Amino acid sequence: MFRGKIEGMDKVLTTLTDLEAEATRFTSTLVPDTGKATLVTLSGELGAGKTAFTKAVASALGVQDTVTSPTFVLEKIYRLPEGQAFKRLVHIDAYRLESGKELAPLGFDEIMRDLQTLILLEWPEKVADTLPPPAVRIALSVRDDGSRHMIYG
Length: 153
Fold this sequence. Notes:
Blueprint: E1 10-13, H1 16-29, E2 38-43, H2 50-60, E3 75-79, E4 88-93, H3 108-112, E5 117-122, E6 136-142, E7 148-152
Parallel strand pairs: 2-5, 2-6, 4-5
Antiparallel strand pairs: 1-7, 3-4, 6-7
């Protein structure tokens, strides 16, 4: 869930600093979903900025750990500092998965039941067959000039 208008909004991010600023702004709009974890999906080709955006969200939420892509481990869980609306951030990279059934060993259903969890899931199209509707969909693409185009949907 989020506060304010975000669906249908798009932005051009010319630098990593712009991406980080947008992630911080986006994070400030998030509020826990009612009835389930807050799921945010991140779509885009390799190198589009999905993990960079996740790192910036984690930083904005106060994560002190080094945030890296969970491509090979599939999932990383970060405890968030006291005083946050969310208690933990779960970062999932579904790039190597072939169907949503492969989310089960990660405890995805249990994670989705935790109201105080924010999930950032990269490559949602890989697991779309079992993925619940996300609170926010974000699509990132690289433009010819190297900037990023971000669409909230």
